Amino acid sequence: MTNKGKDMTAIVNFLQGRNAVEVEEILARSGAEKLRVYPILFELEQEGKIEVMERKPFGEAKKVRMVKGEEKLKD
Description:
- This protein is an alpha+beta fold.
- Helix content is 44%, strand content 19%.
- The protein has helices spanning 3-15, 23-29, 34-46, and strands at residues 21-22, 50-55, 61-66.
- The protein has a three-stranded antiparallel beta sheet.
- Strand 2 (50-55) and strand 3 (61-66) form a beta hairpin.
- The longest helix is centred in the N-terminal third of the chain and has 13 residues, at 3-15.
């Protein structure tokens, strides 16, 4: 698995079972490489796996949550 894939799995697994989560918390506690978090969140949003609940002034995600019915990513 690529580093991006590992980080995506870490983010998805971190979001599982939680309500809306601040991106700052994902950066601090998910274990994903900080520089990959925003691009991965964008990709997950485009795939319909997460929903952005709140955005910062320039459009980047501030708070996100998993879309109901999405399962953990497999390693």
